[in-house]
Design a protein that fits this description.
This protein is mostly helical. It has 2 domains: about 400 residues, no CATH class; about 130 residues, no CATH class. Helices cover about 60% and strands about 5% of the residues. The protein contains 24 helices and 7 strands. The chain has a 5-stranded mixed β-sheet with strand order 4-3-5-7-6. The chain is globular, with a radius of gyration of 25 Å.
Amino acid sequence: MRREAIPRSLLLVAGIVLFTWIGFSIFPGHTYLQSDTQIYLPILERLDTPGYLSRDLVAFRPHVSYTIYDEVTISLHQAFDWPFERILIAQQLVFRALGFLGIYLLVLATGLSRLESFLVAAVFHLGAALLGPAVLLVEYEPVPRAFASGLVFLALGLFVQRKPLVAGLAGSLAVLYQPPTAVPFWGVLVLGFIFDRNLRRDAKPLFLPLLVAGLLLANLAQLQPGVVENQKFFGELSPQLSAIQHFRTKYVWVSLWAAHDLWSYLSIWICSLWATARLWPRLTLQWRWLAVVMPAGGLLSVPFSYLLLEVSNLSVVPALQPARALVFTIAFGSILCGTAAAYAIREGRRLEAFGWLLVVFAIPIRVRVLDLFHLTTSSDVQQLAGWITLAALAALSLTAVRRNALQFGVSVVAIAILSAFLIPLSGVTNFSRFQKAPVEDLAAWAVVNTWGSSLFLFPDAGHGLDPGYFRARSRRALWVDWKSGGQVNYFESFAEEWWSRWQNTMEGEYSTKRLQGMLDLPVDYFVLQRRNRLADIKPVYQNERYVVYDSRDLRNSSTSLRKGTED
């Protein structure tokens, strides 16, 4: 018996490694310096070397006091002497794999076989993008939420496997990485502890690690270096800050997106309830609590966020973003419907399995599932065809080979791998791609030819990602950029300063007249796109996308900037 267990364990590890790599490399994929790492990396750079980025708004106001993300990453960076990118991506892969293991254990506890559980976990890790609350089922970037969510899913799997102490450790570590992500897990445990005597015995051991994590987090927050402003958790939002957040971080304000998005999420929740009813006799006590409370709690987080923020106007809500708990409604929709599909396949009910798989594959293709039926473009038709094809293929092939263990195993692996390839081919695009080489060249020039304290401005970049990417690669400060505006959720003084800078330099159309009005700013270099190249003024650097001007040359030039650009 022991001899069989070792190969199975090795196969499980190999399978998780393989599908973690497939998900990382192909679909849902990964990014670096295309989203929130544009904010976190400058913060890490400055905490590691305080001399860097001293004039940058983002780096100068770190919001990582209540997470061990910075301590762990900087410690690994110093211990291994690896660049931050390698350290962060290594952690991202580890936590994705742990999340995969957690979903596998969660499904295994329903009584499915190892292969069936593995398939449900693999399809779950095709991810989903919840556009309204701006949250991902599988995060693309190595940010605190990505690490915490992997740990939460691991804690869920360990909990239903009745390993409460280890589950508590995983859940407590999730709290240390990002408390808001871990709240739904601990909320279920608290409710179960209060209202269910039978669950209380299993839940007790989980709370000791949580207490230790809370004390550690409080101590680390007090010792956080480089903090120039504490986050404001109590009080009300000022009208000005509310207006800035409405402009820059619309996803926090549920009234701006719930009317359209919530119907799709509600339909997925109804499907998960139906699946729960079908699976109820097979679910353990722990599973029943999770299956009922977590999806419902995710939906309730939307009106809860509305009441706290848009009715009560509490300043803590934009930082916590409780509506992002909606991701657990989608997560359990995928898990429960996938498990129900596996049981239908096991019993040869192809049509029922097809129905459940439609829900499962709709989630990674377009989580706004009702939009799949709005066929207004060729891309819509392509996605609809891919969705139905994948669900039908999985149901037919897995039912057909169910009695042959080898064929079933091959089909499981083939369906999981094909899904990762076929979904992108159906026209699903998870994230935008931009040409990085010109930004890399620009950053390399800045590192060699400018002072570390130099301040840059990209006045014609608009909402583009290039300025934030440049800051991270060059370790040079920016006067203002769009991506850094995401920090308006955390610090009021930052929000006011960012808003003032944005309005005065970036809001609206670029013009040379407007550029001339910026010359009194303490900016050392102005970076323009080539189409906006200035006439009769020699740039200090240029490549196929950018021209860079020294602000002193612009101020001293005898040529008025009102003459405009070159032909």
